[in-house]
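Inputs:
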Amino acid sequence: MEFSLTPDLEQLRAAILTLCERFDDAYWLARDRDGVFPHDFHAAMAAGGWLGIAMPEPYGGAGLGIMAAAVMMQAVAESGAAMTGASAIHMNIFGLNPVVVFGSEDQKRRMLPPLIAGRDKACFAVTEPDAGLNTTELKTRAVWDGAQYVVTGTKIWISTAQVANKMLLLARTTPLDQVRRKTDGLSLFYTDLDRATVEIREIPKMGRHAVDSNMLFIEGLRIPMEDRIGAEGDGFRCILHGMNPERILIAAEAVGIGRAALARAARYARERIVFGRPIGQNQGIAHPLAKSWAELAAAELMVLKAAALYDAGRECGAEANAAKYLAGEAGFHACEAAVMTHGGMGYAKEYHVERYLREVMIPRIAPVSPQMILNFIAERALGLPKSY
Amino acid sequence: MKLLISVKRVVDYNVKVRVKADGTGVETNGVKMSMNPFDEIAVEEAVRLKEKGVASEVVAVSMGPPACSETLRTALAMGADRGILVETEVALQPLAVAKLLRALAEREQPGMIILGKQAIDDDMNATGQMLAALLGWPQATFASKLAIEGERAMVTREVDGGLETLELRLPAIVTTDLRLNEPRYASLPNIMKARKKPIETIAPAALGVDPAPRLEIVKVAEPPKRQGGRKVASVAELVEKLTQEAKVI
């Protein structure tokens, strides 16, 4: 049992926080206003080699585990970059894990180095409007025409598609009525995001304005055989492999944004004088913040436990899901308490916490809703019957 | 040419320091510590000299408790080749540091020693000068530009009224000012490489130096709280207050 970061992890955290100091609150506030992708932040992270933190060394990565990646992503969010900063690089950190695990040597050499170096930006095209979390019901089809796959379908909530030149795409290669199991017949591709055959329509949304979310209308996208990852029909299993790390990283980001909000709230509560004393002297202000501190600390421990299990190659489904649930809720409570602590000022953009509150809804809802997580834990950890 | 660089672990420049309740110093418990910013500039300058092929090896030295090895790791991640930790729990003062550095200089035989002009914790601005005196080497403090030409160093200093350029015969001591360079950020690949670089730990006694303090700190206190300003209605009132109350004109 070890309940504090190792010196190596502390060093990574300190280095990230130092780098992130260049991108201050004014920078992220400006991105929230103008909605422009934080290209210079992405470039700085790439130049520092950070995008490859969890990617294998032979392809330009650092070969560190999900624990290190989680520490990094928490620090990014905690620096004030919040979900805008985290989402700008999130896909780079672990999105191409299916290529690492299931890709051929040639594919790894071709696909990983440009993404790690920041030359390629990729988006993750799995979710569909008519399937939601019922991934096996995906309607997007990839049909082999003798020379290439031809893809038709619709995807939704695809982050960074406006700036991406690559796409990790899950599509059905064998119709659902022709497969033995529902999870069969889906295939995974990593290919060029061809704007001639993919129409990308941005979804106006509540927060994180600088990192776009989109609907993709795919009409006749052609994909060569060498861009298919793993065996045909095996896509669901390929994608499943990265689900737990994905939850761990987004949980770490939620803890980070919660910490950023809590730090601002505590500072304001110490400095804001009303009725001749700091407002933080009132328990009505202090207790919600103290409660948030406790919730965030607990969530962080669960994030690190899930990461430690994953890195040790052990089963971590319940822990990764619990971490994402706890961190999403704790992050939300912290951001809400931060706005309330600021009173009317909390509603003003220049105090930053209303932005955090808008952004923290992302790790609370995505990539899987709190309700579906509780379903998972009820079934897997408690042996209760499936409800849906 | 070998370069010796000293790096000090200090309270991070962003931290608002608090005086300990007993007035013996400032609170460092649970406070973020970092490399002294002027020492970062020293490391950066040394690494650049190595990248230009002027220097062959960069050796970073830190002194203090075991946690100073973290500061050395940062120096190694920026590009220093190896580290030396002079480990002691004694609160070191400039003369002790200068004596320890002299002992290391005699052992390592560097062509130049680059130090920060001062540490941001105690602002002594003394170690480099004392070290130059102890070694009998030429010194150029507050460097804003540094160039090596054969056996000589050309150092531009920021002084009152302008810039002064000194020519020094090597080996020499140089202390860094803020505008010498802008230190790089440690990249992840270099942090990983730094983990494999050696750090030697050595005790002051092994260098023949008694690091006991020679100066006694009598008291550390908060500066007086800044008084709020006052508004005046007219220039006449302002002049009156400046002459009658403040008595500054």
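The first helix of chain A runs from residue 7 to 20. Flag for discussion at group meeting.
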